[in-house]
Amino acid sequence: MNRLILLRHGESKWNLENRFTGWKDIELSPNGIKEAIQSGKLMSLNNLLIDVVYSSKLKRANHTAEIALKEGNYDHLFKDGNLIVNKNIALNERDYGDLTGLNKKDTAEKYGKDQVHIWRRSYETNPPGGESLKNVVERVEPYYEKFIKNDLHNGKNVLLSAHGNSLRALFLILNFYNKENISQAEIPTGKPYIVEFNNEKIIDNYYL
Questions:
Q1: How much is the pLDDT for 35?
Q2: Residue 145 among the catalytic residues
Q3: CA–CA distance from 108 to each of 28, 114, 117 (Å)?
Q4: Is pTM, for the whole model, over 0.90?
Q5: In the chain, what is the straight-line distance between the N-terminal and C-terminal CA atoms, in Å?
Q6: Which of 9, 11, 66, 163 is catalytic?
Q7: Nearest to residue 86, comparing CAs of 45, 115, 52, 50?
Q8: Which of 36, 63, 110, 187 makes an SS bond possible with 10, Cβ 3.0 to 4.6 Å?
Q9: How many CB atoms are closer than 10 A to CB 43?
Q10: Among 35, 66, 93, 131, the one annotated catalytic
């Protein structure tokens, strides 16, 4: 049996301020650092093996992985103090376009809660100047198929540190949700989600 460990980055400074972050490269908040530390402790306490690390190109995801793996004493994943990680833009958060940086509450008051909910949670509707979840799936899936899935098929244990919407995209790719109910998927920050494989078949999935 091998595992895919999915980890949404710890709370960012803009999460704390309730702002649309998207591709803006925002650092972790103090609480987000604590969440990353806790996730590392959880992975270590549960004796999770990790052979390969993937992340988006955004530092809130990169730093979550670094902090968690240092805390969990995954020393084999570091070289000269630096985490050995495969970073790719395909795993970035959804681009919120013109909404980036705006306060979510203020935006809902301006455009209406229903409209903002559609922009945030619908599968095919793009926010102004940004990406739909469908667009995110279209970039995450080829990368997953070419690299991450190949590692899993070779029996490796993989950690993926990413974002709410790139992980929602992966939930669709793995058939945990469909286009109709993906809006219900709430992914907490800094909480490892485990997908267990046996002979390339998913046998279990759960949060630690």
A1: 98
A2: no
A3: 25, 8, 8
A4: yes
A5: 17
A6: 9
A7: 52
A8: 36
A9: 23
A10: 93
